[in-house]
Prior knowledge:
Shape: globular
Oligomer: single chain
Number of helices: 9
Largest sheet: 8 strands, parallel, barrel
Structural class: alpha/beta
Amino acid sequence: MKRKLVAGNWKMNKTVVEAAAAVETFSRKVDRFRDVDVVICPPFLAIPKVRELIKNTHIDVGAQDVFWMESGAFTGQISASMLHGVAVKYCIVGHSETRGRFGKLEIPAELVSFFSETDRTVRLKIRALLECDIKPILCVGETLSEREADETDAVIAAQLTEALTGFTPIELEGLVVAYEPVWAIGTGKTCDTAEANRVCGMVRAHVQSILEEAEPGSGEINFRVLYGGSVKAANARELFCQPNIDGGLVGGASLDPNEFTEIVAAAE
Length: 268
């Protein structure tokens, strides 16, 4: 059985001071749950402070995004080598919000075009991360309209194919894929447990088929499939008991050290 992984995506929340306070509380509470891999993905500015505070724990630090070029005239961007320099171990790529696909829209609809991630840029980011020995957390998921049109599997398969084609099984060893139904992110809605398990199983099978096509006879690789989308203490145990779910990518609930600890406890 794979070790469960629980990652907290803080999104655009917490100053450096607030992040430090939260991590100090969380790290004390979660220390006894050492059979679970734990990752905190704070805003970029808080990464060095968070990394300093967790250096003697079993918690890893992750980033919420990356740019695929090593350097250049790309104002406001952060490269994989910069993340590697502050000991980042994981990085989220292809999150629905960077793709401009929101479950709960908090900005005017005409401004959504600011977020323009594509499957091609996701693939470029994965390549950059792997070259710096950072594990990608690849997010995939469907919108409500796509689900209602019975397009869930087709949409996710296309996202996986476009993001992962061109990589070898060895390169993707340790990959993390997070299934996050867009309509469940920030809305309080959670995918039915059985359906979440089914989709995560489909994700697992499709990733394996992509890698088998790249290198026939390569066999299964070690990667994990997480569920994300309004994961909280109240539903974490039921979700994490499913055979195809290897943990969770947690949004809002990860901002509360007490609730996040309960989610990690559910994974153990």
